[in-house]
Each structure stands twice: as structure tokens, then as C-alpha cells.
From TrEMBL:
Annotated organism of origin: Variovorax rhizosphaerae
Origin: domain of life: Bacteria
InterPro entries xrefs: Bact_response_regulator, CheY-like_superfamily, Sig_transdc_resp-reg_receiver
PANTHER family associated with the record: RESPONSE REGULATORY DOMAIN-CONTAINING PROTEIN, STRESS RESPONSE REGULATOR PROTEIN 1
Lineage: Bacteria, Pseudomonadati, Pseudomonadota, Betaproteobacteria, Burkholderiales
Modification 4-aspartylphosphate, positions: D57
Keyword Phosphoprotein: yes
UniProt-recorded name of the protein: Response regulator
Length: 125
């Protein structure tokens, strides 16, 4: 069964490519997308039970992914949050983990690790 995934990514080109990639390779069902922090937070608050996985970029058209991650703090036990960014510095990883993300991946070099993580998640559920 496909994992209901919420994608927060500001680049339309990357977003479109990720939707196809996640649905084909990650066996995910992308239920909605957002390009800004405000849009993402509003969707998360009004759709609390409509997602199982949120994949969040850190730099957005408005605001940033940290605000989106904070909005996920009171998520259900079956919901997980992943950061997928081009800004995969040690500081960004540490800050994201301190805010409670379940995993952190570099868009440019760790998509294979994301796929492995998705497969591991699927095996557990």
C-alpha cells in the first residue's frame, strides 16, 4: 500500500520530478504539495490525519522548512518527517534532528539513501 506523502518543495521542476520519483521508486502516493512555509503549515493543520510522510525542503519561496518541521511536532506516531535539501550541512542536519525529523537527506547525493529509508519504512509498516 502506498505511503500518503506530503511534499514541501519550492522548485516546480524539482517538485514534479520528485512526485514521479516518489510514486515510481518510493511507492508513495503524493497527496499534496506546497511551495511555501505558510501554505505547508496551513495544509498540515487542516489535514492532520491525511498524511503518513512529510518530505520537506529547507529553503522555500516564503519562510523555511524549519517552520514546517515545527508544525509537525504534534504528529501521530505513524507520521514521519524527512528533510530533503541541497543544503545538507552539518549545522542543518543537527538543527533538523533537534526539531524532531526522522531522517535527513541531501538532494544531490543521497537519493539512493532516501530510497533505502523508504523501503525500510515500508517493511516496518
Amino acid at each position: 500500500m502506498a505511503c500518503k506523502t506530503y511534499l514541501v518543495e519550492d522548485s516546480a521542476l524539482i517538485r514534479d520530478n520528485l512526485v514521479g520519483f516518489l510514486e515510481d521508486v518510493g511507492e508513495a502516493e503524493v497527496v499534496a504539495c506546497a511551495a511555501s512555509e505558510n501554505e505547508a503549515v496551513a495544509w498540515l493543520h487542516s489535514h492532520r490525519d491525511d498524511w503518513e510522510l512529510a518530505i520537506v525542503d529547507l529553503f522555500l519561496l516564503q519562510g523555511n522548512g524549519f517552520g514546517v518541521i515545527k508544525a509537525c511536532r504534534d504528529r501521530a506516531a505513524n507520521q514521519q518527517v524527512v528533510v530533503l535539501t541541497n543544503y545538507a550541512t552539518v549545522e542543518m542536519r543537527e538543527r533538523s534532528h533537534a526539531l524532531g525529523v526522522d531522517a535527513f537527506f541531501d538532494k544531490s547525493s543521497e537519493l539512493d539513501l532516501l530510497v533505502d529509508w523508504l523501503e525500510s519504512r515500508r517493511a516496518k509498516h
